[in-house]
Design brief:
alpha/beta; 2 domains; six-stranded mixed sheet; 6 strands; globular
């Protein structure tokens, strides 16, 4: 046989090489796509696991989703937390409330939690509106070095059939953070727990009562109410501590007026210091029935009137007239509420 003159047909071999090449490429792309889909799915599950529940109105926690969505705002929250701590530490309470604050801070820190190895206490903070109940709780959380979250009872009532899943998601989210202490603040708790109008609220109340009973998820649950009357026995029986924050007395009110005057007026215009110093005591006595929030709004009003005044009136006279006019307006509001 003449091997030198033999001719081979190479075209089938070339075709098989092309099929093998494209088949390998397709398989590789499929594997890459599968890996990416699995990786994306795992990433989304991780984000959803730590995503802040929608029922939370305010929290000191910054989620992974927040960092990925807008890292600038997420980092800014850290600075806002420091500023909030400074402002909360300037709050003025009675000696009794300050002693209760020290007690709660001492049992809420991470070190105390690890040492005690016991369930957290459930606390009810009550009193007339505008006197710093929620600020009192935020102060406990921030100075204990723990995170806090705020939910609102009225907001919960509006969720209807979504209420129970959202409450379960909330407690699951808190339980995932069980390695560190946590403060859960429930605003308008009396309006929510005293409401038995539909099955969704009743079922959600049962979930809360179970969590209050078996508070083993390392959190301090605080119920905020106007008074200490929650008529749901399942909730009331599991409250361990009560804190009554009343309208401040004259001594605390004097400190508040000085604090707000320094913050809103004297830090900008020091020339009014002498006039203000001469009437602080009179204003503290005249505003005996006003809340802390009312006093802050009053001082803000002074600032506006002083800066806009073009008359020959003495600043002291402007402030006193504003003060007594505001007191009369508050009395009219109270009368309307009573009627």
């Amino acid at each position: 046989m003449d091997l030198e003159n033999r001719k081979f047909n190479m075209s089938p071999i070339k075709t098989e090489d092309k099929v093998l090449f494209f088949g390998t490429a397709a398989l590789s792309m499929t594997m890459i796509g599968y890996s990416l889909s699995k990786g994306t799915g795992a990433m989304m599950r991780f984000i959803n696991k730590w995503e802040i529940p929608s029922v939370i109105r305010e929290t000191s926690v910054t989620s992974v989703y927040d960092y990925l969505k807008n890292p600038v705002i997420a980092i800014r929250k850290i600075g806002e937390r420091r500023a909030l701590k400074e402002s909360l530490n300037k709050l003025v309470f009675t000696e009794q409330i300050n002693n209760k604050y020290q007690e709660l801070v001492g049992t809420t820190t991470y070190a105390a939690t690890q040492k005690l190895r016991t369930n957290r206490r459930n606390v009810m903070v009550y009193g007339p509106p505008g006197n710093g109940k929620s600020s009192f709780v935020r102060k406990i959380a921030i100075n204990s070095g723990v995170h806090y979250a705020v939910i609102n009872g009225i907001d919960l009532m509006s969720r209807n059939q979504k209420l129970v899943p959202e409450i379960q998601k909330l407690f699951d989210w808190i339980y995932k953070r069980r390695s560190n202490p946590f403060v859960l603040l429930v605003l308008k708790a009396d309006e929510f727990f005293n409401n038995r109008t539909n099955e969704h609220i009743r079922e959600a109340t049962c979930i809360f009562s179970e969590k209050l009973k078996n508070n083993n998820f390392n959190s301090l649950m605080v119920l905020m109410t106007a008074d200490n009357q929650i008529y749901n026995i399942k909730i009331n029986d599991y409250i361990n501590d009560f804190v009554f924050i009343l309208t401040p007395e004259k001594e605390q009110k004097l400190k508040l007026i000085r604090l707000y005057a320094e913050k809103y007026i004297l830090s900008v215009e020091d020339k009014y210091r002498k006039e203000l110093e001469s009437i602080y005591d009179e204003i503290a006595s005249a505003t005996k029935n006003m809340s802390c929030q009312d006093i802050e709004m009053l001082v803000k009003l002074w600032k506006i009137l002083l800066y806009e005044s073009k008359s020959d009136k003495n600043p002291k006279q402007i402030i006193l007239e504003c003060c007594y006019r505001t007191i009369q307006d508050n009395k009219k509001k109270v009368k309307k509420c009573i009627i």
